[in-house]
Amino acid sequence: MRVAAVALLVAVAVAGCFEIGPSSVRPRDYLTSDSYQKWVIEVDYAATEKPSTALTRFLHDRLAPLVHKDSIEVRLGESLEGNTDTSWSDGDVQSFAREHRNVETGMGTVATHVLFLAGHSSHDTDDGRVLGIAYGHDLIVIFSQSIKNACTLPAPLCSPETYFQAVLVHEFGHVLGLVDNGVPMVRDHEADTCGSKADEGHSINQNSVMYCQVETSAITLLSKPPTDFDADDKADLRAAGGQ
């Protein structure tokens, strides 16, 4: 199991992809059309945390060139109750997702469930906040308030929308199997550390959206957070069956 928690001033921990229980979905199911010709991304959100149309379109346009699918649909689902004081444990997230998931993988469709939640991750510390986590290969949680709170400088010096783009694409990178998380690397580009601590599942390249600091409040240390995959990421996806 991989845990994400990186300090705001000093990077202190590891990755952001949790392997939880059995899942029938694997990266190749997204990358190829062998089993599934359609990809549905079901998005549920706290009433105060509805993602913008621009953000869901941005996600679609980032993913479409990478995979072999007849269509990718980002489908807004339920508006959910949310408490800004909630501390979400892994078990809480998984149970909540099971209660509200409406789209399942099967019959030619592969599905990813994304939750935009109020509250924050139980993995937060006084030094850093988790902005997003991918659980296995079919569930992503985005801690919207933590992303907004990471923007401590006024616009245009800090844009929450750019942070949302970076974190969301980063977590989908984990779902797609990057970096060495289900998709083999053509060329080794996995970082051994994040800051001063051992790390895995993230790119060594600060200009890749798969860089470790993207999914935590350490994103504020990046002058311009990356929102796209680098050449190594894309080469890995192509070698695994993607475009």
What does this 3D model show about the protein?
The structure is a single chain. By secondary structure, the chain is an alpha/beta fold. The chain has one domain: Collagenase (Catalytic Domain). It is built from six helices and ten strands. It has helices at residues 27-31, 53-63, 90-100, 144-150, 160-175, 231-239, and strands at 17-18, 38-46, 71-80, 87-88, 109-117, 120-121, 132-135, 139-143, 193-194, 197-198. The strands form three sheets. It has a six-stranded mixed beta sheet, with helices on both faces. The protein has a two-stranded parallel ribbon with strand order 4-6. It has a two-stranded antiparallel ribbon with strand order 9-10. A hairpin with a 2-residue loop joins strand 9 (193-194) and strand 10 (197-198). Helix 2 runs parallel beside helix 5 (160-175). The chain is globular. The relative contact order is 0.21. The model is unreliable at 1-15 (pLDDT under 50).
In terms of topology, how is this protein built?
Blueprint: E1 17-18, H1 27-31, E2 38-46, H2 53-63, E3 71-80, E4 87-88, H3 90-100, E5 109-117, E6 120-121, E7 132-135, E8 139-143, H4 144-150, H5 160-175, E9 193-194, E10 197-198, H6 231-239
Parallel strand pairs: 1-7, 2-3, 2-5, 4-6, 5-8
Antiparallel strand pairs: 7-8, 9-10
Helix pairs in contact: 2-5
